[in-house]
Amino acid sequence: MTIDVENADSFNFSAPIQIRMSDLDPFAHVNNGVQCNYFDCGRSAYFEHVFNQQIDWTTLDLVLAHVELDFLKPIGIHDSIRCESKVYAMGNKSFKMIQQLRDTHSGDVKTVCHSVLVSIDRQTGTTKPVDEAYRKAIMNFETIFNS
To answer: Which residues are within 8 A (CB) of 49 and not within 5 positions of it... i.e. 6 or more apart?
Structure first.
């Protein structure tokens, strides 16, 4: 499935991101590694919103198995950024997300993140089917699963 990253309306969820001075690299841009943290924050906020509960990452049975970032435009200290997040594919033991950092003033997409999250059994470390409550909440939230 192709997601239109230029279209903010294709995302049902976004969270504001606070840029700090310590996030900057020697070029006065937000460091690429720091942007990974922004996506983590956006992912956590997405799950808390969709699952309607505070997430405890020490007990949640989802792990990030793959992450791929495309840095399209630099992010500066004075940019106003939101992290838009969406689950766009659901498998038995994993699902795929797309996230993007969008400048709220210009509308420009600065960075795009594709990731895969896998459900694991914390006791054995092996994969397991995605929790049915998580699956249902995500599929009800994301309109692409309801069309």
So the answer is: 13
